[in-house]
Amino acid sequence: MARKTGSHSDITGPRVRRAALQLFARHGYAAVSMRQIAAEVGVQAGALYLYTPDKQTLLFDLMRDHLQDLLDAYGGETSAQTPVGQLEAFCKFHLRYHIDRPDEVFIAYMELRNLTPENFAVIEKLRHAYEDQLEQILERGHKSGDFRVPDNKLATMAIIAMLTGVDTWYQEGGRLTRERVERIYWNMVRRAVGA
Amino acid sequence: MARKTGSHSDITGPRVRRAALQLFARHGYAAVSMRQIAAEVGVQAGALYLYTPDKQTLLFDLMRDHLQDLLDAYGGETSAQTPVGQLEAFCKFHLRYHIDRPDEVFIAYMELRNLTPENFAVIEKLRHAYEDQLEQILERGHKSGDFRVPDNKLATMAIIAMLTGVDTWYQEGGRLTRERVERIYWNMVRRAVGA
DNA sequence: GTCTATACCTGGATAGAC
DNA sequence: GTCTATCCAGGTATAGAC
Does B2 fall in a domain? Predict the structure, then answer.
């Protein structure tokens, strides 16, 4: 992407998205004004429209990029052979990824209702693709006899909800280390599926 | 429905709260206008201020009433003697209660950031009081040797997140009956805590 | 108790100077 | 690329007629 000399767009663009991310996560999309975002970046409101056509697209891009990154990151990690190993890898990956990106996770879940129908459809497809990864692990474990779960779809939703909930309470440097958190959650999941 | 003249304050008040509940749940507090609420009720915007001093109080009352009802309803149900029985009762109560009130649950979780600091403190106290009920069950089961959980606080958050997640997917008349949903979740929780 | 009307503010977005 | 100025739609809340 060639730009004119003196252009700051390669710096300001990411800064706009970062400010929007933090403000949306803290106060909610509908409660945040373009003026607030501009103030956070240190530019005037009008300048934001050099980097996004409108506020809705700003939200959509944040959510889409987050979910795409999530899928890409998980895709690059699959190596375990057994269903139990794959489930353990999924759980620990999910926890790590979500602990590291609380703002992105929060927005991707909370702001679904503020998307236009077309944008919503795109995001839901990405979210579903990620959930399918877990469901397929559970199905493989079911067939192999490693897991004892009466309903794979319900278990998928239950496990993801349980793991994602880590963002509601975990604090870096708190009572529990990340490794301990990962191990405790994994043990609960492992037993929950009867492995 | 033809609206007659005369006093309706005893019926309009609840209708205002109900409309606000549904609209807040669907679109979010910040995205809903007093004019929309009024239109849903069938009155003019100005008339809303006969039933609430302002929009913030409307939100706060919805959240406080929901959490207070939750605590009261659970308090009236405790009868099981053993930790396992108490945990089963808690899980099934929680699922039933949350399946029946998806809008209230959604708001009580999603709109925390739109409360004033004073109101937030009140709501957080109520929420914490409910979480403590589960934590105490886990502690009793830990002492009695019925449960094998390495961290009661983490397990409390994990179980509540897992169960509350039912609202993100469950549909009345869908593939699974309520009884089946309750049983499957309960089995996952029971195994997760090593009972 | 509810209406109409309105005060007053802030929102998203654009135009044009520099 | 950013700023200032501005348009106009829509927000919360209030006043006063009925």
Answer: no
